[in-house]
Automatic annotation (TrEMBL):
GO terms for molecular function: broad specificity oxidative DNA demethylase activity; ferrous iron binding; oxidative RNA demethylase activity. The keyword NAD does not apply. It comes from Nitrosospira lacus. GO terms for biological process: oxidative RNA demethylation. This is Alpha-ketoglutarate-dependent dioxygenase AlkB.
Amino acid sequence: MTPDLFEFEERQRCRKWREELCPGAVVLHGFAAQDDTAIFAALHGVTGEAAFRHMITPGGFRMSVALTNCGAYGWVSDRTGYRYDATDPESGKPWPRMPGVFLKLAQKAAASAGFEDFEPDACLVNRYEPGARLSLHQDKNERDFGAPIVSVSLGLPAIFLWGGLRREDRPVRIPLMHGDVMVWGGPSRLCYHGVLALKEGNHPLMGGYRINLTFRKAT
Ligand code: MD3
Ligand code: FE
């Protein structure tokens, strides 16, 4: 291997950079990578209390993405609609508390994108298996659109679709890798977005899955 190529690969492996997509929307590449084992352990605690499940959309479809929640509120879907709920419909109990390592990471990421006092009360955990996808949608079940959304990607890579404020706006494709963190605030908060069908693979920590943590201020 030539020295130049070695250096290039080394930089790829340790890559950590900040990409401003538009005012208030930032990708922090590799931001969560150092904390991945602590996040993984905390995630086990959460899913031990509230297991991943496939929810049903108001239209009657089973979501291909499996999900669970932690924090004071959790995002739920059923035949009656989408909402945030303080109890897990599966157990009738409150959602597991948000692990300290989750909260600290979300606040650190928000601050580095210019949102100093982010106090998320909900963390939605999405689990993608090969073939799972999320079609273009807006996140508008939260009460306060002034607060940003922080999203942490772990495990297998995926192509994120970032559209405009109208459904017709042609989305931009953003590859998201293990450890990447996105912060969505300001005008981008109501942008349409989605995730293309996950490709098969194996990740050393997360196995055959992609996990996404999204931190929100729901109430
Ligand atoms: C852009 N999740 O759970 S996170 C969702 O990767 C969701 O699992 C995706 O969309 C995932 O609702 C994308 C990134 C994200 C989250 C919220 C946004 C991007 C956003 C809200 C507004 C604009
Ligand atoms: Fe979303």
